[in-house]
């Protein structure tokens, strides 16, 4: 592979979090015992993480804007999360956009979505639909899934409020996502964390690629390349470059973007390691293509 090119002149980090555990309750970060987590032991991030911490982690990279994604606050207080982040942004200059939370199947979803949308910094919603633990267990039509009529009724409210949808689900549910995108084409879907290709066996990766192809056939679906670490394994280009290149090849440079998922992904690598890996994996791309992946696509999709 060619050597890594120069860093881009500007970066938009399309997915990160901040939290103040002294001021706000996040059950997964505060309560005991800790929940089962895909990166294993996450005790290192069970502490406050604020813009100064994020800036320290991203030092050396020209991060000019960023996207905050909901961080699993106490769910009864979801609107307060958006309001708190808007205040943090006003004080600290980041994040630049917010992806808030709403239970799309809840009878009160329309009211909450309208309230989120009234906060200027809010651009979209993330609500993780019901998902199977493995590809073999996946079944269509489950309650709370993307097939659920009640869930879809809430989803239909996104376009009415000018909101996009961040989808975090394993790749074995991307057939449902493709149908959702086809049926409701006015809503932009942004798949989180590369659709979670945790199993790196040849068979699983082949199925992951086919699932991405199914999703990418819908023009209103984009992909965030992030969250590709594995428990107990340090983030390394050798283990992740093929994932990055395959994802870009399937979605194209116009519908893919890079994101840190910090501080969560600090469990597997520091910011420089991960973003240098993104850079090295795209060394054969033009500077214009890299700017799309590191900056321009996030600016367009999150309306920055």
TrEMBL record:
Residues 12-304 form the Amidohydrolase-related domain. Pfam families: Amidohydro_2 (PF04909). InterPro entries: Amidohydro-rel (IPR006680), Metal_Hydrolase (IPR032466), Metallo-dep_Lactonases (IPR052350). One of its GO terms (molecular function) is hydrolase activity. Belongs to the metallo-dependent hydrolases superfamily. This is Thioesterase.
């Amino acid at each position: 592979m060619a050597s890594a090119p120069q860093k881009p002149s500007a970066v938009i980090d399309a997915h990160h979090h901040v939290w103040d555990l002294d001021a706000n309750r996040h059950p997964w970060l505060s309560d005991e015992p800790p929940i089962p987590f895909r990166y294993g032991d996450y005790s290192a991030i069970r502490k406050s993480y604020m813009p100064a911490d994020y800036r320290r982690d991203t030092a050396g990279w020209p991060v000019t804007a960023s996207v905050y994604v909901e961080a699993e606050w106490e769910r009864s207080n979801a609107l307060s999360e958006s309001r708190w982040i808007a205040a943090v942004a006003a004080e600290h200059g980041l994040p630049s956009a917010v992806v808030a939370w709403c239970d799309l199947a809840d009878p009160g979803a329309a009211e909450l979505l309208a309230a989120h949308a009234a906060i200027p910094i809010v651009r979209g919603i993330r609500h993780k639909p019901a998902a199977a633990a493995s590809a073999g267990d996946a079944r269509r039509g489950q309650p709370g899934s993307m097939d659920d009529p009640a869930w879809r009724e809430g989803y239909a409210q996104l376009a009415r409020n000018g909101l996009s949808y961040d989808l975090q689900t394993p790749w074995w549910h991307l057939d449902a996502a493709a149908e959702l995108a086809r049926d409701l084409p006015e809503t932009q879907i942004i798949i989180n964390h590369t659709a979670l290709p945790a199993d790196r066996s040849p068979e699983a990766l082949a199925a992951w690629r086919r699932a991405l192809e199914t999703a990418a056939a819908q023009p209103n679906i984009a992909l965030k390349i992030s969250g590709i670490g594995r428990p107990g394994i340090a983030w390394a280009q050798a283990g992740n470059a093929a994932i990055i290149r395959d994802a870009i090849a399937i979605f194209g440079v116009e519908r893919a973007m890079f994101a840190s998922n910090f501080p969560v992904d600090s469990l597997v690598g520091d910011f420089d390691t991960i973003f240098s890996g993104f850079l090295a994996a795209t060394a054969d791309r033009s500077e214009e293509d890299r700017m799309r992946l590191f900056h321009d696509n996030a600016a367009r999709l999150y309306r920055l």
